[in-house]
Design goal:
Elements lengths: L16 H6 L14 E7 L5 E7 L1 H4 L4 E5 L23 E2 L5 E7 L2 H9 L2 E6 L6 H4 L26 E9 L2 H6 L3 E8 L12 E6 L5 E5 L4 H12 L6 E5 L15 H11 L3 E4 L2 H7 L6 E9 L5 E13 L5 H13 L7 E9 L13 H19 L3 H8 L18 H12 L10 E10 L5 E8 L5 E5 L8 H13 L6 E5 L16 H28 L7 E3 L2 E4 L2 E4 H12 L2 E8 L10 E2 L10 E11 L6 E11 L6 H21 L4 E2 L2 E2 L18 E6 L21 H12 L10 H11 L1
Parallel strand pairs: 1-12, 10-11, 14-15, 18-19, 26-29
Antiparallel strand pairs: 1-5, 2-4, 2-6, 3-5, 7-15, 7-24, 8-13, 9-10, 9-12, 13-14, 16-25, 17-18, 17-23, 20-21, 21-22, 25-26, 27-28
Helix pairs in contact: 6-7, 9-10, 10-17, 13-14, 16-17
Bound molecules: dioxothiomolybdenum(VI) ion.
The site of dioxothiomolybdenum(VI) ion has 11 residues, from loops.
Length: about 750
């Protein structure tokens, strides 16, 4: 019934558009303060070594230098999300190339860089490990020999180089294999890829004599930045204020502190504001990239194509710190099981340290890696038992009322609709695979991340409505979506809404712009605020109109009953004079999704909330001589619950597919002996507009019971299926490649092996 709505369901322009297209928006990289100095980091050149000597005297004498900071200037030793294994500056041991050892503050970034290069370090090399399977060997070098002494969440299970071992377990997997007619065992590996935001990480910090820090940064999570900074600086959180600038993309790579803690320490050391911006090389070699993984999957099926048992193991290469790898190892289990009915499951997730740069949460963390394995294997099995891949999926997918692998009962399951719509649009039933032409399918499910959101909604005397949210606009348009929800619920125009956002002191707490949750959670908080506002509005209007409050209605900014009416602006003005104005605090926290705790051990991510379902279909040509892959057509059928702003959702789908194509076909951070061999945007092959195929979006609307107007999270899912869909299409056209990225070189090698 989208047609009944006036603001939601419409492709209205976003509030941040004009500033961005005119260049007036102040991004983190633009932000400046008077008297500001510049910081640079001196980073490890060794993958694993003890620091024997750190000599700063020569650097101190360099022109323009104002301060040099090291671990001695940082009050807290170690911090981190699941395990406190991160050091701001290396304490005495470096664990990856690029690990910060010291920071230099100077008049200019160039002077700071020159001085950082003049810092002298003597290392005592230690044995290093770069491969997760080697890291699991009993005699492997330990990345953190004192791991068990670090503080950690009680749920993690640490041992050797393993930062967490989680298990998803249902039924009796051995009995399931015994009952199976066919058993398939496959191995998959995936690549480390950069989150791909266009704006580097940037922050400016100011320190006041009264001990307060103010940090302007392009972080996705101002409140988490505030609390982590307070922990690192050992000051009360009230002494740290984090304000988001305009943000040039995040994709999860700006969830955790990047440069904020460095500029904060530097600003205190020199008493002046300090700015730092990462270089492309620093980005490519030390960003929170997507974890590479190794996956082994063993699946048993009956003759008629029903999955009876699935056993698997995913080894997540977290790099030198566990970061979000613990969560990735855990959520991988849910994705590896997949949106399928499987009576017997045993899936182990291991998060493993190596001497590489720390990794992080990149858009749908674990999704593309695990889905690549599951959906590649679904096609391998279908071929093995002579079933159409679409038909094989339809025989096994979850349906309304089913119990998912983790024990959560799923409803509003639109997977069949997504699969059929994507298949129809790509011309699945008329496909002629082989001889360099092929079509591929992949499907999956994903969560709408929970966590609390608060908004203040304030109606100003001219009738303009301010949405004050702790959530940042990271470039998706999601805050415009939340504002559309507010406008619809309140009965005003989108143009009447102003947005104030993402300031840890001035805005209400929000779990933040992450996990496809922004429009969903902030939108629901707005609806809650509107319920309260309407009471205030009607109570104020009732005596003015001489009508009982319960008889009043609010439409298009006018409160009325019969022929009596008063505008919202008039009420807001009257209330401002008589009682401080018209304002409400709205909150939202997603209701917990029940699951079966007996089905898992050490799972830190246990459910998929308001799950979305999606299917991708792609048509490729593979050059039989060069192995070059050309995408002829790409279709996404995604259940968005309700499309609050169809145009921006299509934008998320097209962008997500492009990121997924990058991971599938060309992107890879390549390590050689612990050093990144392609730390630049020439040798790291991110797709450009020239590589973009036509992407067709089909928005399926199977409403969430929780989301605003039925909306589900939409931002992350589009990046999940491209690697699997492309691998399946390339397999149909030429050959199966099970290690990402599927480069032309690999395709040629596999074709040669097959012939
Ligand atoms: Mo996302 S990886 O939750 O920004």
């Amino acid at each position: 019934m989208a047609s009944d709505y006036k603001v939601v369901g419409k492709s209205l322009p976003r509030f941040d558009a004009m500033g961005k297209v005119t260049g007036r928006a102040i991004y983190g990289t633009d932000f400046a303060l008077p008297g500001m100095l510049h910081g640079k980091l001196c980073r490890s050149t060794m993958p694993h070594a003890r620091i024997r000597v750190l000599r700063l005297d020569k650097a101190r004498q360099m022109p323009g230098v104002r301060a040099i900071v090291t671990a001695a200037d940082v009050p807290c030793a170690r911090y981190g999300s699941f395990i406190k294994d991160m050091e701001v500056f290396a304490l005495d041991t470096v664990r990856h190339v690029g690990q910060p050892i010291a920071g230099v503050v100077a008049r200019s970034a160039a002077e700071a860089e020159a001085a950082a290069a003049a810092i002298e370090i003597e290392y005592e090399p230690l044995p290093a490990v770069f491969d997760v399977e080697v890291a699991l060997q009993p005699d492997a070098p330990l990345v953190h020999p004192d791991l068990l002494a670090y503080q950690a969440m009680p749920t993690v299970l640490r041992q050797g180089n393993v930062s967490n071992q989680s298990l998803l377990s249902v039924g009796d997997v051995e009995a399931g294999f015994a009952a199976s007619d066919h058993i398939f065992t496959n191995r998959f590996t995936t690549n480390m890829v950069h989150p791909g935001y266009t704006e580097p990480r940037a922050a400016v910090a100011q320190w006041d004599r009264d001990g307060r820090f103010t940090v302007w940064s392009n972080t996705q999570l101002p409140f988490e930045a505030q609390s982590t900074l307070a922990e690192i600086l050992k000051v009360p959180a009230a002494q740290v204020r984090v304000i988001c600038t305009v943000i040039g993309g995040g994709f999860g790579g700006k969830l955790r502190l990047g440069v904020e803690h460095y500029v904060a320490v530097m600003a205190k050391a020199c008493g002046r504001p300090v700015k730092m911006v990462t270089t492309t090389e620093e980005e490519m070699a030390t960003a929170y990239s997507r974890q590479p993984v190794v996956i082994e999957l063993k699946t048993g099926v009956s003759r008629d194509g029903r999955i009876l048992a699935k056993q698997g193991r995913i080894i997540v290469d977290t790099g030198a710190t566990s970061g979000s790898g613990v969560g990735v190892g855990s959520s991988s289990a849910l994705i590896l099981a997949g949106p399928y009915r499987i009576p017997n499951i045993s899936i182990e997730g291991l998060a493993v340290y190596t001497n590489k740069a720390p990794t992080g949460s990149f858009r749908a963390p674990s999704g593309p890696q695990a889905n690549f394995a599951v959906e590649s294997q679904m096609d391998i099995i279908a071929a093995g038992i002579g079933l159409d891949p679409l038909e094989f999926r339809l025989r096994n997918i979850l349906r309304d009322g089913d119990t998912a692998p983790n024990g959560q009962v799923v409803n509003k399951v639109s997977l069949e609709e997504c699969l059929r719509k994507a298949a129809d649009a790509i011309g699945w039933s008329q496909r002629l695979d082989g001889n360099g032409r092929g079509k591929g399918l992949a499907c999956g499910w994903w969560t709408t991340t929970s966590g609390s959101s608060g908004v203040y909604v304030k109606i100003n005397p001219e009738g303009k409505v301010v949405m004050n949210t702790g959530c940042a606009e990271i470039g998706t348009g999601a805050l415009t979506g939340a504002a559309q929800v507010l406008a619809e619920a309140l009965g005003v125009k989108l143009d009447d809404i102003d947005i104030v956002s993402a300031d840890s002191t001035a805005t209400p707490f929000d779990h933040g712009a992450q996990g496809s949750r922004t429009a969903f959670a902030v939108g629901n908080a707005c609806i809650n605020a509107v319920e309260k506002l309407r009471q205030q509005i009607f109570q104020a209007a009732a005596p003015k109109l001489g009508v009982p409050a319960e008889n009043l209605s609010l439409v298009d900014g006018v409160v009325s009953a019969g022929d009596k009416s008063i505008t919202l602006a008039e009420i807001a003005k009257a209330l401002q004079l008589s009682g401080g104005g018209l304002i409400a605090h709205g909150t939202f926290i997603a209701p917990p999704t029940p699951y079966d705790p007996k089905r898992g051990r050490n799972l830190v991510i246990t459910t998929l909330n308001s799950p979305s379902f999606h299917a991708h279909a792609v048509d490729v040509s593979v050059d039989q001589e060069t192995g070059e892959i050309q995408i002829n057509d790409y279709v996404v059928a995604q259940d968005v619950g309700f499309a609050i702003n169809p145009l921006y959702i299509e934008g998320q789908i097209e962008g997500g597919v492009m990121q997924g194509i990058g991971q599938a076909l060309s992107e890879e951070i390549v390590y050689r002996d612990g050093h990144v061999a392609n730390a630049n945007l020439t040798d790291y092959k991110m797709p450009t507009a020239m590589d973009a195929p036509r992407v067709r979006s089909i928005l399926v609307e199977c409403p969430s019971e929780v989301g605003p107007f039925g909306a589900k999270g939409v931002g992350e899912p589009p990046v999940i299926e491209p690697p699997a869909a492309l691998a399946n299409a390339v397999a149909a056209a030429a050959c199966r490649v099970s290690d990402l990225p599927i480069t032309a070189e690999k395709v040629v090698r596999h074709m040669a092996m097959a012939s």
